[in-house]
Design brief:
Layout lengths: L10 E5 L1 H15 L5 E5 L6 H9 L9 E7 L4 H19 L13 E3 L2 E10 L9 H7 L6 H14 L7 H11 L9 H6 L11 H8 L2
Parallel strand pairs: 1-2, 1-3, 3-5
Antiparallel strand pairs: 4-5
Helix pairs in contact: 2-3, 4-6, 5-6
Length: 213
Amino acid sequence: MPKPEPITQKKLLLAEGKDAFYFFCHACNFYREVEDVQVMNFGGNDELPIFLSDLTNMDKFDEVNAIVISRDAETDADAAIMSIQDAIKHANNKNSANIPIPQESFKYTNTQKSSMKVAFMIFPGPKLKKGTLEHLCLSTVEGDPLLECVDDYLECAKTKGELFPRAHKNKLYCFLSGKDDFIGSRIGLAFKAKVWPPDHLALEPFKRIIQEM
């Protein structure tokens, strides 16, 4: 289970897993003029309540003025938001923290009891009820003709008995394998190289939240 690293910045972006961690490290470099956001990997979604509780007990937490939490919607964006809200409530109740709890994604909230503002970012975006980081990335290259080849390959593989329970990951890494310079690349490295165009409209809600931190 990941443990929070020492707090070095007043703005914290908490990401679900290594792929999202590196994705947001590069997103902050793209979207902010100064390096003043600390990105942390909280691990899996079930680990967020304990991670937040540990975080609120750390030195310099009282200096934090912005927290953004991001995770996949998976099959239900509303359930994902409720899960984050419950994790914050757990930390607040356990450690008498005053982390504000947003009622919806992609909107900051704060309270009179706290100088901190908080927002949630749910992949693949505010208007989508299900999906993942991989779905967001693929949406930024939906006009690339290589995707037709990827779909044909995956359909062929299905006829050979492959089930693809994580089809979004299969599709994304199959796409990257068709780009000679990015064979075997992870999501974050591909973002750094702008395979996923940072100015794409699908990334605007994420860009806005990061810029407003």
